[in-house]
Design a protein that fits this description.
With 407 residues, the protein is an all-alpha fold. It has 18 helices and no strands.
Length: 407
């Protein structure tokens, strides 16, 4: 793709997804003695704090500069990783989740707004679906490499804790990458000296986004699916670990090392598939009547996959359960470029960071609810029951998330 900023945007996503702890996060929490419900509480705290910070972070990014917002975000992430690497205290984990939430809130929506600002300045706004799909593909390529590197690190050390320290390195590199973004992408020169007036215009314009039910449904369709996916996706880890330990494979090594190899391989193939799903978002959408039709179908299919994964796990068919969750990852990464494309159609340019952050805010609240519910169900019944129930809830909520495909 011939564009001087595309490599910078792609590098951002690639480095940002080198979160070596992600394929093992639930397993790390279980190893230090937390219950599934405590894990759900931590996830919920992360999402609620992110939600609390989301709108002011988008506002500050639009008013004072998106690049500054991104630099603060990555600094907060690094503090969070340091805390996770040195403690096993539930209380300190909450502190770490606070800094992680700061990172999420000041990042989400903001970088997408930077990309859209660049496309608008270069007269390429009509290419946003294809452009964002390719930048997301770079992010997923980072996730694929992340799975292998994380697995190798856990296998070599036999400990999950070191992966948090290792994650600091790519985030420091991304800080340097972001620092070199052009200042004009901040788009703040026009508001200096009249911030009070801008605040009033900002609030009234922001409320207009949600005036129409069609706009609200775009937000709900995106947020419900993404929230459920975010809360449930890490439950793939104990499913893979249980399957890995049942195999006559590397039996001379510890359970942590044995499962790390299988988890790394599975996640590597998951992200290889999601690279293609993101990069080919435009082509895949061509198989549907419209973008909205594609989101409706994948929403329902994703819900059924969660139910199927839960039933397969309950029937002691872990490979089928893993396959269903793998396909769910593909659906999620196909949907994101399409979601951003549709949202950018209803959000005014001057509110792009805030409007996209609002979608993330809605998603974080939904994720928090699902995280608590899944943790309770996993402790009370089983992980498989938790997955199946989350799929059923998605189907029950489809009536408010359905997008009208009439022109």
């Amino acid at each position: 793709m011939k564009d001087k900023m595309f490599p910078r945007f792609a590098l951002y996503g690639f480095l940002k997804n080198l979160r070596f702890f992600e394929p093992f996060l639930i397993l790390f929490f279980l190893q230090v003695g937390l219950s599934f419900f405590q894990i759900g509480v931590l996830y919920a705290i992360r999402e609620i704090l992110t939600n609390f910070l989301e709108i002011p972070s988008g506002f500050l990014a639009d008013i004072y500069g998106r690049k500054k917002s991104m630099l603060f975000s990555f600094s907060a992430y690094i503090i969070s990783f340091l805390i996770f690497s040195i403690t096993s205290s539930f209380g300190l984990f909450i502190v770490a989740m606070f800094f992680f939430a700061c990172g999420e809130a000041f990042r989400s929506g903001t970088h997408k707004a930077l990309i859209l600002a660049h496309l608008r300045m270069t007269g390429r706004l009509s290419e946003k679906l294809n452009y964002y799909g390719h930048t997301r593909a770079s992010s997923q390529a980072g996730s694929a490499l992340n799975a292998l590197l994380a697995a190798a690190l856990v296998f070599y050390t036999g400990n999950y804790r070191y992966i948090f320290l290792a994650a600091i390195v790519p985030y420091l590199l991304d800080l340097l990458n972001l620092a070199g973004y052009p200042a004009e992408l901040d788009e703040i020169s026009s508001i200096k000296g009249r911030k009070k007036q801008v605040v009033k215009e900002y609030i009234s314009s922001f409320l207009l986004i949600f005036r129409h039910s069609a706009n609200r449904r775009i937000y709900l369709n995106s947020s419900l699916f993404t929230g459920c996916f975010t809360a449930s996706k890490d439950y793939l880890q104990p499913v893979i670990k249980a399957w890995a330990l049942s195999l006559p494979f590397l039996t001379l090594y510890s359970a942590t090392q044995r499962s790390a190899v299988i988890i790394g391989i599975v996640y590597f193939f998951i992200y290889l598939l999601t690279v293609s799903a993101s990069a080919k978002a435009v082509k895949i959408t061509g198989f549907f009547h419209s973008d909205k039709h594609a989101l409706n179908i994948t929403y329902l299919a994703g819900a059924l996959l969660l139910i199927f994964a839960g039933i397969a796990g309950y029937q002691k068919l872990p490979l089928i359960s893993i396959l269903a969750l793998l396909i769910l990852y593909v659906f999620h990464n196909y949907r994101r470029p399409v979601n951003v494309h549709l949202l950018s159609e209803v959000i005014p340019d001057k509110l792009m960071a805030s409007g996209l952050s609002a979608e993330t805010q809605m998603t974080t609240m939904i994720t928090a609810v699902f995280a608590l519910l899944l943790g309770f169900l996993a402790d009370t019944f089983s992980v498989t029951m938790a997955l199946a129930v989350s799929g059923v809830i998605l189907i029950l909520l489809y009536s408010i998330a359905h997008l009208s495909t009439k022109k």
